[in-house]
Amino acid sequence: MAVSLTQHDRSRRAFVATLRSHVLQRMAGDLRQHFEGTVGPEHEKSGAPLESPEAIHEALKPELPFKAYSSVRTAAQEMVFDVVSDAVDRELETLNERAAQPAKKGSLTLNSALPLPKSVTGIDVHLSPGAYHEERADNDVSAGAVYDNSIDVFAFGQFGKRHNDIGTTLSNYLRLKFPEFAPTSILDCGCTIGHNTLPWAQAFPDAEVTGIDVAPGILRYAHARAQSLRVPVHFRQMDATAMDFEDESFDVVFSSMFLHELPLKDIRAYFREAYRVLKPGGLLWTMELPPNAKMGPWESFYLDWDSFYNNEPFYKTFRDQDYPALIAAAGFGEDAFLEATL
By three-state DSSP, how is residue 225 classified? Predict the structure, then answer.
């Protein structure tokens, strides 16, 4: 499912990846230096120290370094999708044809009657036009293709050649840390293009691995991508907050950078569903943003930037939650909760 890139494509992608790296490292560092050297001390002298991420945000809003940082970062984010769309548009007909080929491994099950949540359709999340849900034609895979191609530019190569670093790390940690644990059924919720789903099938080849998401285009692409990589995974169009699976169906329920895209009521519903579909002794395994309670004020302010300027309105609300309390409310025992914050 890879698209062919011209030298022009490669040059534009390299420029935007480098620009994002510059923003997130050099400009972010300069912004922090401005806060710690000027803005913070000025507020302390006035008797109003900035002790919360909200206070830091309000204090920095009128400052030129913050305006410059936010402006360039937002422009770079929009450019990510602009520079990858040319190649996808150029080869979209071919990509759609490839995705329509009969399955040799795994499966794809779509549900045209499934209503897409407003949290998906109501915003262009990450400033990506059409986000996860756009469909330009019948049997379209453009949303998945844009997402796949954008990851390298967005993360400037940090997620690995196949964008599978998270899934590979967590599945193999589980396999090596608990060699006696032999799951036969694994579920990835909010799987998008399956980049972190496929590693589970590779780490546990005897298990049946399923990935679910609500948008059909990314699932068509995920299935075609898995076919091209010869990894057997079953993809199903399904809402993780109201799953069609029977009780006690899975040994592992996994998600990666999924919860912060959901309204709080849907996060709670997802945890209830995860509890329902897990087998006794099963594992809920989640990779997510760190909670604000475990971060310093500056770090929390910096991470929450996306909630205000990157079309991720649920980002901060999620990070403000008490994670153990969330899962306890769904039925999980708080004594079984393990959290590692890096």
Answer: helix
Per-residue burial over 117-129, b = 16 or more CB atoms within 10 Å of its CB, e = otherwise: bebbbebbbbbbe
Q: Which residues pair with 210 in a beta bridge?
A: 187, 234
The 3-state DSSP composition of the chain as helix, strand, coil percent (nearest 5) reads: 55, 10, 35
H or E stretch at 107: strand 107-109
> Could you give the CA distance from residue 328 to residue 314 in angstroms, rounded to a whole number?
21
Phi/psi at 209 (nearest 5 deg)? Answer: -110, 130
At 40, list the tokens. Answer: 């913070």
- Residue-wise pLDDT for 96-120, tens only, equals 998 888 878 899 999 999 999 999 9
Sheet holding 278-287, edge to edge: 107-109, 234-237, 208-213, 185-189, 250-256, 278-287
CB 62, CB 123: distance < 8 Å: no
Residues 21, 154 contacting (CB under 8 angstroms) = no
At residue 211, what are phi and psi to the nearest 5 degrees? Answer: -120, 135
List the end-to-end C-alpha distance of the chain, in Å, as a whole number: 34
Contacts of 124 (CB under 8 A, 6+ apart): 130, 131, 311
Distance CA 24, CA 30 (A): 10
CA 268 to CA 159: how far, in whole Å? 28
Angle CA(129)–CA(191)–CA(266) in degrees, nearest 5? 80
DSSP for 91-113 reads HHHHHHHHHTSPPSSSEEE--TT
- Do 13 and 152 meet the contact criterion of CB atoms below 8 Å apart? yes
Within 8 A by CB and 6+ apart from 241, the residues are: 262, 266, 269, 270, 273
Q: What is the pLDDT of residues 31-88, one digit of tens each?
A: 999 999 999 999 999 998 999 999 999 999 999 999 999 999 999 999 999 999 999 9
